[in-house]
Every structure is written in structure tokens, then in C-alpha cells.
Specification:
This protein is an alpha/beta fold. It is 43% helix and 13% strand. The protein folds into two domains: 51-197, Rossmann fold, CATH 3.40.50; 199-267, no CATH class. It has a three-stranded parallel beta sheet with strand order 1-5-6. Strands 2-3-4 form a three-stranded antiparallel beta sheet. The longest helix is centred in the N-terminal third of the chain and has 15 residues, at 34-48. It starts with a helix and ends with a helix. Mean pLDDT is 88; it is low at 1-7.
Amino acid sequence: MAKSGYQRKYGHRVAVRPDQPALTQIGEHQKVLRGHKLYAEHVISSLASMRFLDLSPDRMRQPAFPGQDILGDGGDNLPTVLKEICSDAAHRNALIDWTRELTPMDVKDIEFPIDPTTGHIQLAFREADDRVVSAYAASDGTLRFLAMLAALLGPNPASLYFFEEIDNGIHPSRLRLLLDLIETQTAKGKVQVITTTHSPDLLSIIGNETFEHTSVVCRRPDTDAALIRPVAHLIDAKKLRKSQGLGRLHTSGWMEDSVFFEEGVTE
């Protein structure tokens, strides 16, 4: 393919195979400068440390092979990941405390019985009255929360997690605790969390720092394109948040209207 003048000013072209990632080929190509190779390696490492979790309660309930200490994208291997976390006494106590606070169960301990037939690790909860509750009997919200705990407290956390509809299955009265968990872990500077929500209750309780990093996503009525804008940058957003609350602004459609107004979009 011939180079245009626009392309030539960026240097030599590198031929890459279309059936393999270009970044990995750049890192191995002989004609690429060492500095560019290091940059490509850094980008690859950053991309590899991003996790997009689409948690499935059915998959989280399943027993897992021993030794599987990485949570699958659907929540697979939850029993063995939690078992690894619980091998540290402090982490085990923290896990039990968070579970007790955020779920309807009065959890005293988390247990990992072995299936005598398959040897797989199962997940169960021992309550204060010594009643044992299997993961199959636990609520979807409880399992989703445990998977988020496993991701954030696990032995090999990613640098960035994306959770879809993070409040799904969590009782409104416990959303504050869920938000506390995320804000506590991200404040340590080792992990970032991106999540979506449609919950007015969750939006109403976010703190000032989280508010500054909250964006509204809406679709233009005249195209298929999406618009993403920081809520804090919308006209009078901070003042209206104090007087009406972010949850109410969301349910009224004010955020989308403000974005369309600033973009000059007419419905």
C-alpha cells in the first residue's frame, strides 16, 4: 500500500498480520525502536490488567476445581477464590464482616466443603445459630456482592474493574456499605473501579469525590452515537445536587436534558 504524505510524516510503516494483535507484533518487530517496544509492552500490560465482569449467579454457585484462584468474568471459581482469601485470618475476618453487614444473613463463618464425588470445592455459609446455608440457597445479591469482594480483596487483583449495574440485587438500605467498600479499596490507589447504575438511591448517597468522577451517558436522538459528560461539569449541577439530590435529578431526566442543551441537540 502506498504511503500518503500524511502517513509518511509519522515514520516507517510496519507490516502486521491481520489475524494477530498488532501491539504484540510491534513489540517483536526488528525495525521498531526500543522505546516504542517498551511503550507497546506497557500498553499490553495495562490492557491485560483490566477486567470486565458480567457476574452470573448461576455460575457463582457452581463448585470449582481446587487451586483456581482467579475469578472468571462471570464469577466462575468463586468458592476457590474466596477460600484463597480466607487462608489469611485478617482477610477472612474482613470478608465475614462485610458479608454480615451487606447481606441478610447473620454469617458467623464461610466454609468450603469438598464434594466427595468430584473433589470440587463448594461454598457455604455458617450462620450464628450454626445453620449451614449452601451457595445454592443464597440470594443473587449476596453472591454478586461476594464476587465483588473476591475481585477487590483477592490475591491478584486487576488494576481496573468494570462492573455492570453494580447495585443489582443489593437492598437499597445496604447501598451505602457497598459504596464504602469500593471507595475504601480505590482510595488505596492500587485499583480503579468503573461501574454503571440506573439507581436513584445509589446516586443520592455518593460522596463529593465520587461525584466529581461521575458521568452521564446518553444516546443522541438523531444518531446512534452516545454522549458521555461529567455530571459535575453540567450547568448548575453542584448547586442542584445540594438542593434536590442527584437521584432526583436522574429520575427527572435533567442530566440528559442538560447534555442535549449544551450540545445543541433538539429532540
